[in-house]
Amino acid sequence: GTILLTGANGFIASWITRILLDQGYTVRCSVRSEAKGAALKKNFGKQADRIEIAIVPDIAKACAFDQAVQGVDAVIHTASPCHLNPDSDPSELIGPAVAGTTGLLQSALKYGTTVKRVVSTSSCATIFEFVPKPCVYTEENWNELSVKTVKEKGREAGADHKYCASKVLAERAVWDFVESHKGKLPFDVVTLCPPHVFGPSLVLEKDFSKLNVSQQMWLSAVKGPKDNEFLVTDGHEWADVRDVAMAHVLAIQKEAAANQRIIVAAGPWKWQDWLNIARTLDDKLPAGNTSYDPAKAVHFIRYNSTKSTDILGLKFRRMEDTTKDMVAQFREEGRL
Ligand code: NDP
Asked: Choosing a second label site near 19 at 20 to 30 A (CA), which of 93, 121, 134, 230?
C-alpha cells in the first residue's frame, strides 16, 4: 500500500518512514520544499525507490493536500510547528496546526477516495494540566488551561502554553471534523498522544538549533551546568522516538484503533534519572544532584497508557536503551 506522511522530514516522521519502508510500503512524503525532499531521499539509499515526494509549501492553505491525498491507503499527519520559542505569536503555532489538520481532512474527504484511515500526531500536551499534585491522566482528560491562558494572555502566555494550545486545538479539530461528518466519513481517524519523545535522530545533525526540541532539552539537562534542584524536580513521562514511530504504523494497521485517542507513554522520569544512566556511559558528565533518590521521587504527571499496549500491541524500550543510542549519536556529532 501507499501511505501519505506529512512533515516527513521531522524527528518522529523520519523513523515512521524507515519503518514503513522496512515493512514494504510506498511512502508519499510531504515536505515544504524540493530541497527538503531531495535531502530526505538521500537518507534511505535503495529504499528511496519507494518514496514519492509531495511538495506542500504551506499546509495552512486551503486545498494544500488535494493532490497529495489521491490514491493513498492511509494518511499519517505529523506536520505541526514544534518549538518552544517564548517570543512567538500564538497564531504562528495555532494557525498551521489547526488549518493544516482541518485542510488535510477536507482534502482526504474530497479527493482521498481510497483513504481508509487518518492518523494524527497529537501530544500529551493536549492532556495534562499544570497541577502541582500527583495526577494520573487518561484519554478522557483535556488540557483546558493552556487554551484559556493563551486566550487571556496571547503572546505573553508561556511558551509551553502556546505550544500546548496549538496541539489541543489541532486535535479538537480532528474530533470536531469526525463529529460534524458523523456516518458520512469513508475513513476513520486515530489520534496519538506521546509525552516527551527522546531517542536518536535517524540522521546525524551538526547544527544544535536544528536538533529536535526534546533532544535539545535532554542534552542541555544532561550536560549541565544546570540548577541541581531542577534536575530532581522537573520531569514528565517519555517514549522512545522509534516506539512512537511504531505506534503510528500500528495505528494504521490495527482495526480496533478506529476512532481512538491513544496515549503513547513509557513511564515517568526526572532529568537526574537520565543523567544517572548517561553517566554510566560517559564519566565526564557532571554528577548532578547526588542527593537524588529515585524511589522517593514524586511524579506529578502520570499517564495510563494501557490502550497503547492493548489496542496497538506496542512494546516500549527502556530508558537505558534510549540513553545508550542518544549518547552514541551525540558523541558522533561531537556534542559529548
Ligand atoms: P520536528 O520539528 O522534527 O518535525 C516537525 C515537522 O513538521 C517537520 O517536518 C516540519 O517541517 C513540519 N512543520 C512544522 N511547522 C510547519 C508548518 N508551519 N508548515 C509545514 N510543515 C511544518 O518535530 P517532531 O518530529 O518532534 O514532531 C512531529 C509531531 O509530533 C508534531 O505534531 C509534534 O507536535 C508531535 N509531538 C512531538 C513531541 C516531541 O517530544 N518531539 C511530543 C509529542 C508530540 P520543516 O522541517 O520544513 O520545518
From this structure: 93
**pLDDT tens column, 258-281:** 999 999 999 999 999 999 999 999
299 CB within 6 A, ligand 1: no
Is the reported ipTM for this assembly greater than 0.90? Answer: yes
Residue 277 lies in a domain: yes
CA 8, distance to chain mean position in Å, is 12
* Banded model confidence at residue 230, pLDDT cuts 50, 70, 90: very high
**CA 79 to ligand 1 center in whole angstroms:** 5
Do the domain assignments include residue 176? no
What length is written for the chain? Answer: 336
Task: Tell me if 72 is assigned to some domain.
Answer: no
Residue 296 sits in which domain range? 200-237+268-336
How much is the pLDDT for 205?
Answer: 80
Q: Would you say 103 and 67 are in contact if contact means Cβ atoms under 8 Å apart? A: no
| Closest by CA position to 96, among listed 154, 173, 150 | 173
Ligand 1 and 221: CB distance under 6 A: no
Residue at 205 is within a domain: yes
Angle between helices 213-223 and 319-332 (to 10 degrees): 90
Domain count along the chain: 1
Q: From atom 33 of ligand 1, which residue's Cα is the shortest distance away? A: 82
In short, whether 246's Cβ falls inside 6 Å of ligand 1 is: no
Residue 191 near ligand 1, beta carbon < 6 Å: no
Give tens-digit pLDDT for 203-223. Answer: 988 788 889 999 999 999 999
Q: Is 292 helix (H, G, I), strand (E, B) or coil?
A: coil
pLDDT at residue number 227:
82
Q: Is the CB of 167 under 6 A from ligand 1?
A: yes
